[in-house]
Automatic annotation (TrEMBL), chains A, B:
Pfam families, per database record: MarR_2, ROK
Family statement drawn from the similarity comment of this UniProt entry: Belongs to the ROK (NagC/XylR) family.
Organism: Paractinoplanes brasiliensis
Protein name: Putative NBD/HSP70 family sugar kinase
Lipid biosynthesis is among the record's keywords: no
């Protein structure tokens, strides 16, 4: 594939057949209904190759024929649409105070969306893994009862996750070196579908790009806004995970060596200014610090801050301006280093964005080396708190789009 | 092409034929000599397709046959190697005190490497463009006299360059909004080869990845070390330029709001601590500030600092430790956000790296959220001060590798 800038490619050679299957599948997804001749004309593949690829995709129940059309110039043609009705992609999220599950079909339509309260004991991952496994089993068996095959399951975790699915560090959960992928695979009895574990922000940005208002933006960042803050980054259409999967550690960018102390043990990190705990302490000083740090209490406090901001409460507006300013400062680091086209504010940032975005934009503008923030726009995400779980399901769909396809039906199964 | 992580792809469909030509060409580059059957076996392309693609590459004089081999199992096979002897890729660099030109053949061998002193008047780009054009004409006519066709020319500029080759800002040159690509194209009389303009660090990292010690590292950063500091970034094998081409503004990352004032008008930027001017002022305080700011004087000062450091001069060692510490602080921002596998220190950092790297590594370690600096290694670049120009030529070769091929010879030309 030719990159936007003609830059170097990884040295390994792609499986050209898989690539071409994925090219045809993506064409059908975006141009449905279309004919084999349409696909050949757009992709540059020859017609015989397209026919062979389409047959393969039909065998894999990813594409189906929907009848002839005559509403065209030339001969009537058999039209193709995305099928995928026998499939489902599943995403789970574990956070400090809740678990979520989302399932999508191949077209990105939601098949289920569940949320349940959860308060695990910090440092006791076993309990969390059992709860995640129970939720996964319920979701998978519901989907299987509906006749769907689960193509994959991805778990979103608020922390550093390596390429093997080991959670190196998840401060909010009190986890260190938890091999979540291995433990959950065992708890689910070695399921046939692939099971992946990934940082929550890295997944949420996939959902933002496929399902959100920023669909198709090639250089995109999604910020999780909660007790901890993370950035999911897509550059030139591809997720940026970094060499070990640790990219996007946004919350612990140091802003001021003389700043307030942070939960990570350093001083002046963004999270110490703009994490949800910091906002609550500043906007609602009557709330005790201990209460403000209890995640299960966050939701009502955000609602209260929102209500007071709309009513013009001076203290709350000052707190939001201060948080926005620090957010803009941290965003200037991001903009100077990776120059995204768009930053979508998720989590608690979304609902408070009418106050946060103006303050953040002003600070970003004053600190960006390039004029006009280097073109970076700040927007509120349209996704709700299921963004990371939806991103987990999206990641499974992305693997399909990239050519990791379910096998063809066997003759016996037809 | 399947990405490492199965992430989403840009929605446009690649030209599959061009992709496959590039796949075959890259195979010949890395596995030369090889047979058509070898290529088919490794790439998954069928043999008839490979034969057709190889014929095309031979027609374009990119690949040639070198005779049969019998030193194999099975039938003797016609072996193929990279040709490209009729081609050259050219890179130029303009900096505050010099111009360089580098030409490479298709295999990355150096055909010429020139350096000449240059001191343009700040804010007068016309003079610089005339000098660049003269250098380009000399290089191109030398290559053409040798029977080579120039495939492209890329100019490296220390500043913000947009996707159209407009230099938005190059503080060291005193440039703002200079349409260098257009002006240079006109000055060269609208040449037939493509002419590109790009940030110097973005190009140097391409040379580091293809020609340096970090060849093949998929997540790589190259730091230019001079009066100004920039970062060229490669993520997952591809250059990270950002939405408008402004990524890698490393020198103006703010480290401390109470820090020293910077040439950009802000306070506490990395450059105010670790730019070459800052190092000279700290290590050699007897050198007047005005002298230290004159780029043509930099070379001897770096040599002097190197000599004194080796001799154990206390003041110089303290200055290098301080610069290294600030460099490590800024690198922690880079590591937390993009998690590279390797950071290569270029420019003046290279020769002083024995003192800078230990201090920078200690600081980076203490500030990285992930353990062990998230796996990021700091190394001295093996490239000399022609790195950006070599990167300019490399960019032309990268375009060839990505499928932007020279046209086949016409029948008359054979």
């Amino acid at each position: 594939m030719i990159t936007r800038d003609g830059g170097p490619q990884p040295a390994d050679f792609a499986d050209v057949r898989a690539t071409n299957l994925a090219v045809v599948l993506r064409h059908v997804r975006t141009h449905s209904p279309c004919s084999r001749a349409d696909i050949a004309a757009t992709t540059g593949l020859n017609k015989a190759t397209v026919s062979s690829l389409v047959t393969d995709l039909i065998d894999r129940r990813l594409v189906r024929e929907v009848g002839m059309t005559e509403n065209r110039i030339g001969r009537p043609a058999m039209m193709l649409v995305l099928d995928g009705s026998p499939y489902a992609a599943v995403g789970l999220e574990i956070n400090t105070d809740y678990l979520t599950a989302v399932a999508l079909d191949l077209a990105g339509e939601r098949l289920l969306s569940w949320r349940r309260a959860f308060t695990g004991t910090p440092g006791q991952p076993g309990q969390a893994i059992a709860s995640l496994a129970a939720l996964a089993r319920r979701a998978v068996s519901k989907l299987e009862r509906e006749g769907r095959q689960v193509l994959g399951l991805t778990v979103a975790v608020p922390g550093l996750v390596d390429a093997d699915g080991v959670v190196e560090l998840a401060a909010g959960l009190g986890w260190q070196q938890v091999d979540l992928r291995k433990s959950l695979t065992a708890a689910l009895g070695e399921p046939a579908y692939p099971l992946m574990v990934e940082n929550d922000a890295n997944l949420a940005v996939l959902a933002e790009q496929r399902l959100g208002d920023s669909a198709g933006v090639a250089d995109l960042v999604y910020l999780t806004g909660g007790a901890s803050l993370g950035a999911g980054i897509i550059c030139d259409g591809r997720p940026l995970r970094g060499a070990r999967g640790f990219a996007g550690e946004f919350g612990h960018l140091p802003l001021d060596p003389a700043g307030p102390s942070c939960t990570c043990g350093r001083r002046g990190c963004l999270e110490a200014y703009a994490g949800l705990g910091a906002l609550i302490r500043q906007a609602l000083p009557d709330v005790g610090i201990e209460t403000a740090l209890s995640p299960s209490e966050f939701g009502p406090h955000v609602d209260e801050i929102h209500r007071l901001a709309k009513a013009g409460d001076v203290q709350v507006l000052a707190a939001l301006t201060d948080v926005g300013r620090h957010l803009g400062h941290a965003l200037s680091l991001l903009t100077n280093l990776i120059n995204p086209a768009c930053v979508a504010l998720g989590g608690y940032f979304t609902v408070l964005s009418p106050w946060l975005i103006p303050a953040a934009t002003a600070e970003l503008e004053s600190r960006s080396v390039a004029a006009n923030c280097g073109g970076t726009r700040l927007v509120a995400s349209a996704l709700d708190s299921s963004a990371a779980a939806a991103g987990g399901a999206t990641r499974v769909l992305d693997a399909i789009d990239a050519g990791v396809l379910p096998p063809p039906r066997t003759a016996a199964a037809r």
